[in-house]
Write a structure and sequence with these properties.
The complex is a heterodimer of chains A (312) and B (275). By secondary structure, chain A is of the alpha/beta class. Chain A is built from eleven helices and twelve strands. Chain A folds into two domains: 154 residues, Thiamin diphosphate (ThDP)-binding fold, Pyr/PP domains (Rossmann fold, 3-Layer(aba) Sandwich); 135 residues, Rossmann fold, CATH 3.40.50. Chain B has 275 residues and is α/β, with parallel strands linked by helices. Helices cover 41% and strands 12% of the residues of chain B. Classes of the chains: A alpha/beta (312), B alpha/beta (275).
Chain lengths: 312, 275
Amino acid sequence: MRTAFINALCEIAEEDERVWFLTGDLGFSVLERFYNRFPERYVNVGVAEQNMTGIAAGLALAGKIVFTYSIANFPTLRCVEQIRNDVCYHNANVKIVAVGGGLVYGAQGVTHHGTEDLAIMRALPNMMVVAPGDPVEAALATRAIVERPGPCYLRLGRAGEPIVHQTPPDFRIGKAITVREGSDVTLIATGGMLYNTMQAGEQLTQQGVQGRVLSMHTIKPLDTGAVLAAAQETDAIMTIEEHSIIGGLGSAVAEVLAGTDSKKALFRRFALPDEYLKDVGSQEYLWRKNSLSVEQIANRILEEYRSIKGSK
Amino acid sequence: MRSNMEGNYRALSVLIRAHVLKMSHHAHSSHVGTALSAADLLAVLYGNVLRVDPARPDWPDRDRFILSKGHGCASLYAVLVERGFFPKEWLESYGQDGSHLFEHITHHGVPGVEASTGSLGHGLPIGCGMALAGRRDSRSYRIFVMLSDGECDEGSTWEAVLFAPHHRLDNLVAIVDHNKLQAFGKVKEVLDLEPLADKWRAFNWAVREIDGHDFVQIEKVLSSIPFEPGRPSCIIAHTIKGKGVSFMENQLAWHYKSPNDEQLHQALDELGVTK
């Protein structure tokens, strides 16, 4: 996703003089392609995320479209008040980009686990929250958020994730992409969990359960229509995210479901527990430890689905 | 300085102070002391220095003034009214139900306010961003950011202090309203900043210290921007919290209190203003 993002941004910056890029001294060997082409619109502000965010707001108030960039929690939680007051309150055209959303930096430690970002960014007025599901979506998202003025948080994974979309999907902010049709159960994934969710969907098919897979790349504004349709048209809704159980995709979907009279569909959330992880290991290892591997997702969905079917 | 300019500044500063006192009295609002310490600086800035146009608050080439010490907003609202940015009646409803004006400086719906602040340590980074944009666009506007001394406790302030000289932002001016008092008492006792000017110098700013109530010194220093080409300018303005009202000067209590009827009367009397 990281590579797809920076390539897309270089194209956009070529077309639009207003695009600026600020980094908090991270992105070595990735950002050079932007810097080499647009040195006068690139600033490495140093290891100073609060200042970076304030500078971005100032640039945006002077008419620029400003990307801030760092990893995990540094461009978000470290400077959340600058994001709230300077960016969101002023409705400044600042796009905050975090690489390493979720457990990408697994063995680097809990400081590098971006696992509450969606909840916190989602709570801010004026903020758009986008977590693309694969590199194809990441490139399309980069263009889409520039076309839509105002604050945005773009949560990216790492480099080299598997491609989910073999052909470019119709990517629109606030519109879920139906990656796979199905009428038994709806699997709603965001960010890097899209690939695991697609694989889990394949396994369900082999068991005779037709899973609809939605890429909910925009957490805010949420595609409530897609959620309500899933509640009407399928027997169960499962949300899958690499984020705390509190406040992310699952919570956003729950808020929609709680506001509807139709309680027909079973609803379950696949997410990280409300605790700091104690296990040391890679992203894949931590997925397994937290029931987010393909097999674990597929098995639990199957279990849940069979339990409601058995009881009906 | 022509003596009539000094008279103009003095007259404007009296109007600002009178507004501040009436606003605080009416709204029962705090932070009157910090609003008064900045009044003379604002009188010169808005009286003569800033290139702004009340008829075109969004004029792209305007100078930008950011009040980073957002709690001192009463004096900024007051001077914006005196310059004609919005109607005087707005001041009367300051901080009250249905007003245009919050008690920390707010841009929303208020012409002439460049940035909303209230949490300390936010103004200088925003100013750095505006200064970068101005330079990149080859525009001649300048950015003035007024900070409190207490605000120099904030790490984010020093991130920006480090940044601006590295990028040679000589279109940026930081004015520290150094009134020596912060929320719990003397700056020296809460968290000593001295030697404050030397700290800014050590970060490669061009620094001048002035008496922040002496119109001749204020005008002179603000007419010499940038002090050195290629460097941002820092003005340490030595001021008195509560300046202009004898019983408010250097009194921590006026960080919190608002004047009652009698105190307002006495304060306006001292300013030579009839209520």
